[in-house]
Every structure is written in C-alpha cells, then in structure tokens.
Amino acid sequence: MRAITFYEYGPPSLLRLEERPDPVPGPGQVRVRVRACSMNAADWHILRADPFLARLAVGLFKPRYNVLGCDLAGVVDAVGPGVTRFKAGDAVMGELGSSGWGAFAERVCAPEGVLALKPANIGFDEAAAAPLAGVTAVQGLRREGCLKPGERVLINGASGGVGTYAVQVAKVLGAEVVAVCSPRNVEQVRSLGADQVIDYTQTDFTQSDARYDLILAVNGYHPLSHYKRVLAPGGRFLMTGGAGRQMAAAVLLGPLHSLLSGKRLGYVTMKSNLEDLEFLRDCLGDGRVRSVIDRTFPLDKVPEALAYLEEGHARGKVVIQVALPSEGRAEATRGEPSA
Ligand SMILES: NC(=O)c1ccc[n+]([C@@H]2O[C@H](COP(=O)([O-])OP(=O)(O)OC[C@H]3O[C@@H](n4cnc5c(N)ncnc54)[C@H](OP(=O)(O)O)[C@@H]3O)[C@@H](O)[C@H]2O)c1
To answer: Which residues form the Enoyl reductase (ER) domain (predicted)?
Structure first.
C-alpha cells in the first residue's frame, strides 16, 4: 500500500510517499481501506515537534509514529480476532490520535472502539473531516462546557476546522451563538447558524458590554483577564487552541482566576470518546451538522495540504482523498477549493 511517511522531525517537505506492506489487524482491531482522511493542526505540531514538549508524547529524538493522520473514513476490509462491532464491508469513520495515527495511507489498522459507522447519506470526505475537530467542539461545549439551552455562547475563531463544528454543535445544544471571525468568513459562519457574527478586525468583543455564559476560544488571542471580564456571573471560559502564550495562560493561570472569581477558566484537551463521536456522527447523519470542506487534495499532495493548513487560514477542513491506483481515479483535485 502507499503511505505518507516521515522519520525525523521537520517541515512538510520531509514527508515521502512510500510503498509499505499492508498492516495486519491484531486482536480487537479492524483494518480500514481509507477512502478519505483529514488534516489537523496536530499533524503539523507532531511533524515539527512544535512545541518541543510534544516530544515527550511522540518520541524524544525520533518520531514514534512514521505515518501521520488521525481522522479517517473508509471501508473495513479485514477484522482481527475478537472484533464484535464491525465486519468487512462496513463504512466507518473515526479518530486515531490515541491509537497510533497512520491515516495518511491506503490502509490502517485501528481498535474497533475508536470507530463509528459512517452515516449512509454523507460522503467519505464529509465523514473524514469531522472526528477530531468535531469531537473537540462537542467536548468543549457539551462535556466540559456544560452548555445548556438558552445560554449565550461565544466562539472565538469560528471559521476553521474546530470553529465550524462548534457553531453548529452549539446550535444543536439550543444555545444563542455569537461567532468571531474575519470579514471574509462572516457569511459562511452565519450560514452555519450563528445568531450574531463579530468581525474581529472591526470589534474587540472583550471590550463590549455583552456578557457570555460560555466562551470557547478556538483561535486568536486575548489576555485571560479580558475573557474573564465578559463572562456572565458563573460563566465558563474554555480554550481549545490558539496562540501558545494563550494556552500557557489558560493552563497555568486559569485555575487561579477561577478560584478568585467564581467563574471557570481553563484549557480543554480532546480525548477519544466513542459516545461523543457517535453524537457527532448522528448530527451529521440527520443534517443538524455538516462538514465545511475548504480544499481537497490527493494522497501524494499531503505535504502541500499540510503546508496550506499550517498557514492558519483554512476555511473549515482540509481533506485528503485516498484513491487506489488500481481504481483508476484521475487525481485531478490538487489543492483546489471544494465546490
Ligand atoms: N485542545 C485540543 O484538544 C485541540 C483539538 C483540536 C484543535 N486544537 C487547536 O485548536 C486550534 C484551532 O484548530 P483548527 O483545526 O480550528 O485550526 P484551523 O482550521 O487551522 O484554523 C484556521 C481558522 O482560524 C481562523 N483564525 C486565524 N486567526 C484568527 C484570529 N486571530 N481570530 C479568530 N480566528 C482566527 C482563520 O480565519 P481567518 O484567516 O479568516 O482569520 C481560519 O478560518 C489550533 O491551535 C489547534 O492546535 C486543539
């Protein structure tokens, strides 16, 4: 099979298209013929070992995993001993961040517990776009943010991978949604259901009189004290991403701010969770949530796709379509915006 490999930390130009033996599923694993996978910031953070501390998790001197990619959708083509939930031919979607990565390939083995059946009415591209970004949104808003119907939530950084799912999931949860993005994305974010859209080039929401029950900070930077100022009494601020200094502040100073204010400020790390994945899958299946796909690339263009994502201005998700050479598909879409 073909896979995109790397053996040392560095820029996307180190990635190579390589022939590898097909993996064999072990106990409790299935092998998925990957039809599409998607890019996440985590891929380039690991590729570059940036921040340096990432090496503690993925290999101090050399990467522990040689094939990146955690989001995938595809078809089960082999099952290992003890597998009960899937059989060959099932279309599945899932996230491999806690189970060895490897989705930038034609085939990958995964524990059955990190996969869910793909809704029949969405394509492989849409399904592969969703797991990591969508589950991050679900966990930030529902599991950790405890967002209730009627509450007012602000999503800072609403136009990227996580943000586009967060706007929609917040609406599913019955919240009033205020979304922050740049002017070029205002219409798209509004079309996802945001009740109000703030253009961050015109308005600093932390200086307004509006108050929020929950702020999900996905991208961008404001000092923690500014976020705290615009939280309603008992409000929650949860950060999932953004500038490094913002993350450090949320992790280190969040608990202190929480102690003294009666509000909750902190950082959320996405954890693989089948219940959250299935909730997201059901929302995709019944149309309450849709994947916003910025661009699609073929497997051999993963380096270009990763470099594009790293620029930090993707509108929704960047998806890799994985065709077998024998399928004769013309790999014509090379970084073009999706229709
Ligand atoms: N904690 C976790 O477990 C977890 C999980 C997933 C992701 N993350 C992190 O979350 C962050 C976002 O991930 P992502 O997948 O959404 O990234 P992404 O898709 O690369 O985000 C790109 C989007 O961010 C917007 N953006 C850039 N600067 C902004 C600013 N100053 N204010 C508001 N929006 C801004 C861009 O729009 P414009 O170009 O129009 O500004 C673009 O639409 C990353 O730092 C990632 O590492 C963390």
So the answer is: 10-320
Q: What confidence tens digit (pLDDT) does each residue in 221-265 have? A: 899 999 999 999 999 999 998 777 888 888 898 988 888 888 999
Distance 161 CA to ligand 1 centre (A): 7
- All residue ranges of the chain with pLDDT < 50 are 330-334, 339
Domain-embedded: residue 272:
no
> Is 320 within the bounds of a domain?
yes
Does residue 283 fall inside a structural domain? no
Give the C-alpha separation, 13 to 19, whole Å.
Answer: 18
CA of 85 relative to ligand 1 center, distance in Å: 34
- In Å, how far from its chain's centre is CA 327? 29
Domain of residue 20, residue span: 2-130+291-337
CB of 315 shorter than 6 A to ligand 1: yes
CATH number where 184 lies:
3.40.50.720
Nearest CA to ligand 1 atom 47: 41
Nearest-CA residue for atom 44 of ligand 1: 241
pLDDT number for residue 243: 78
> What does the pLDDT read at residue 335?
56
Cβ 280 under 6 angstroms from ligand 1: no
- Are 144 and 109 contained in the same domain? no
Q: Please indicate whether residue 162, judged by its CB atom, sits closer than 6 Å to ligand 1.
A: yes
pLDDT confidence of residue 328: 53
d(CA 175, CA 168): 10
- Residues 270-279: pLDDT tens digits? 999 999 999 9
Q: How far apart are CA 219 and CA 180, in angstroms?
A: 9
